C-alpha cells in the first residue's frame, strides 16, 4: 500500500472528513515520526510497532568493479520492530498464497 492508497481508504472509511483533511492528517503523522527519528527519539505505536534509529559504524568497503578499497562513512538508518499484536494478526491471518509470495519477492534487498 502506498500513501495515496492509505489516504483513499481512510477517506472512504470516514466519509465525514474531506480527503484533503485526511491527506493532511496522514502527512502530519509521517512528518512527526520522521522528525522524532531525526532527533534520535524512539516512536512507539502500541499494538503496531516501534520506530528507532540504528547506527552503522564506518567501515572499509570494496568497489565491486575494481576491487579497490573504499571508505564508507558512519550512517544512521531507520529500524522498525513490529509489535506483538501486529505479529499475532499477521500469523493468524488468512493471506492468499499469491500475495504472500509477491510480498516476499519485493523484500529480498531490504536487508541493509
Automatic annotation (TrEMBL):
<dbReference type="InterPro" id="IPR005685">
    <property type="entry name" value="IHF_beta"/>
</dbReference>
<dbReference type="InterPro" id="IPR010992">
    <property type="entry name" value="IHF-like_DNA-bd_dom_sf"/>
</dbReference>
<keyword id="KW-0810">Translation regulation</keyword>
<dbReference type="GO" id="GO:0030527">
    <property type="term" value="F:structural constituent of chromatin"/>
</dbReference>
<dbReference type="InterPro" id="IPR020816">
    <property type="entry name" value="Histone-like_DNA-bd_CS"/>
</dbReference>
<comment type="subunit">
    <text>Heterodimer of an alpha and a beta chain.</text>
</comment>
<keyword id="KW-0805">Transcription regulation</keyword>
<dbReference type="GO" id="GO:0006310">
    <property type="term" value="P:DNA recombination"/>
</dbReference>
<dbReference type="InterPro" id="IPR000119">
    <property type="entry name" value="Hist_DNA-bd"/>
</dbReference>
<keyword id="KW-0804">Transcription</keyword>
<keyword id="KW-0233">DNA recombination</keyword>
<comment type="function">
    <text>This protein is one of the two subunits of integration host factor, a specific DNA-binding protein that functions in genetic recombination as well as in transcriptional and translational control.</text>
</comment>
<comment type="similarity">
    <text>Belongs to the bacterial histone-like protein family.</text>
</comment>
<keyword id="KW-0238">DNA-binding</keyword>
<dbReference type="GO" id="GO:0003677">
    <property type="term" value="F:DNA binding"/>
</dbReference>
<dbReference type="GO" id="GO:0005829">
    <property type="term" value="C:cytosol"/>
</dbReference>
<dbReference type="Pfam" id="PF00216">
    <property type="entry name" value="Bac_DNA_binding"/>
</dbReference>
<dbReference type="GO" id="GO:0006355">
    <property type="term" value="P:regulation of DNA-templated transcription"/>
</dbReference>
<dbReference type="GO" id="GO:0006417">
    <property type="term" value="P:regulation of translation"/>
</dbReference>
<dbReference type="GO" id="GO:0005694">
    <property type="term" value="C:chromosome"/>
</dbReference>
<protein>
    <recommendedName>
        <fullName>Integration host factor subunit beta</fullName>
    </recommendedName>
</protein>
